[in-house]
Amino acid sequence: MAQFRRLTTIVAAVLLAAVALAAALALARAPAAGALPALTVTPTTTPIFSATLSLIPDRQTLLVGETLTMTADLTVGEGCIYPIFELQLRQPSSETAIFSHITPPGDLITGPIPLPSVWTFQATQPGTATFEGQTFGEKNCDGAWIWQYVYGSSAAITVISTTHEIRLPAVMKEE
């Protein structure tokens, strides 16, 4: 019976120590009065660069000698910036040139470049043409400036000849 009391005392002491330890751990985890709550860090995503260069003609068909107005505009994805230093607009070298520049007088302008940018061309001969555009600038989506080109192209534009030939049958009287 003495052994039973000794065993009971030991078990009671161990249980009391376990309860005291649990209480101490609970107090250590509880914030002190006036302490700031723990902050949770939420990772953010860096925007992905995207840009579209649009080339919009004022019409799809015109006559030789008439002028075409082409508007170049740039749309940049949300969260990024893209200042441009150069804007180029021309017919592809694989096509026969059927337009000449009026304003600006060449196929390249440099900064500062206001957008939308309006270009005027004169149709010089009949045919079908497209225009290609290119910007050169620096993209910035996450604090780093990186050189970037953006390309675009127009829909096909048709130039019609102003000369019309009409062939009528000839009626002749033989004498």
TrEMBL record:
Keywords annotated in UniProt: Signal
Signal peptide per UniProt: 1-22
Record flagged with keyword Signal: yes
Domain of life: Bacteria
Protein name, entry field: Uncharacterized protein
